[in-house]
Amino acid sequence: MTSKNWWKKLISSAGVPLTMKYKLLVGVLVALVLLLALYSFPNFVSSKVTDLNVGSRVFLYGTVTDRVSLGGLISGFVLHENSGSVFVAYNGTLPALGEHVLVHGTVKQYFGHVYVLANFVSWWP
Q1: Residue 91 DSSP one-character state
Q2: Burial 10-36 (b: 16+ CB within 10 A, else e)
Q3: What would the CATH number be for the domain defined by 46-123?
């Protein structure tokens, strides 16, 4: 058995045509690549807290380190990522402490303090 054809012999030994096994193998590899891309999506699109510009729309990925809810006035949480932390104002259900989330929102400023007004917050592993 040559080193070039060992995989063909291994795949064709089960009695299933080589083309069907090849298509199955390619399908599995494509699915793995897509899953890996989806899983690492936040790493590709996430902004750094230190690079936030007022008025810009951003994606942020990080860990929830604190939650704030002041009656009906304001609610949100503190999001920590590698470069720092930022307050995220959010009117939906607040994520749990320690949860990893992906936030999409607009960077705002209030009396010199930068925060993110979230459009959506998604749990992300």
Answers
A1: S
A2: ebeeeeeeeeeeeeeeeeeeeeeeeee
A3: 2.40.50.140
